[in-house]
Amino acid sequence: MPREAGRVGPNAITRVAEALRAHRGERLCREVFAAAGLTHHLDSPPARMVAEEEVAALQAALRERLGDAHAGRIAREAGKLTADYLLAHRIPRPVQWLLRALPAGLAARLLLLAIARHAWTFAGSGGLSVAAGHPVRVAITGCPLCRGQHAAHPLCELYAVTLERLFVRLVHPGAVAREVECAAMGAPACVFLIAWRAEQARESFPGPVAARGG
Fold first, then answer.
1. Staple partner for 11: which of 31, 82, 123, 211, CB 3.0–4.6 Å?
2. What is the CATH number for 30?
3. How far apart are CA 205 and CA 186, in angstroms?
4. pLDDT in tens, 127-160
5. How many domains does the chain have?
6. What is the extent of the structural domain holding 102?
7. Within a 13 Å sphere around the CA of 193, how many CA atoms are in the beta-carbon half?
8. DSSP class of residue 126?
């Protein structure tokens, strides 16, 4: 899919709708999307890239309508759905088999390269950088999930859980992802760390963390 400036993948809209409908019902789903000015995406789900401003508006409406705790639960469920969609439709099965067969460190490097090649689907007009190691580091400047928001805790659960689920399925079953810095908290970038050795996971995540997805 070609890059489009200021646009991100439609999963940030469609999977939130799926999660809202499943856990809070059609009525509340429509209320949230109406508050964001996006009811047209419920009637005709987007199949192409969407404006990053729409993603930011939807996340803001989620938090305003549901509160941070419930909005976070919906975002985490949307993250799971996003990862499952990518595994089913965007990452070729032979590539998945290869990654699972490789040592975790090498598989992580290859997965990071793939994420970096498709950076705009996460970051839109912002920037994305990755660094291999343990933990793995993914940083997004201008993240559309929390753009224009202010909070005392990280807000980008959707991306944290998407990354975690991809690493669990393709790199190591014990992978855990945390957002340790967030632009909504005044940080220059939203920073996600992913580790996969359970006995070291807690020490690998300094600073504030996002609530863990399943």
1. 82
2. 3.90.1520.10
3. 18
4. 999 999 989 999 999 999 999 999 999 999 999 9
5. 1
6. 7-204
7. 18
8. S
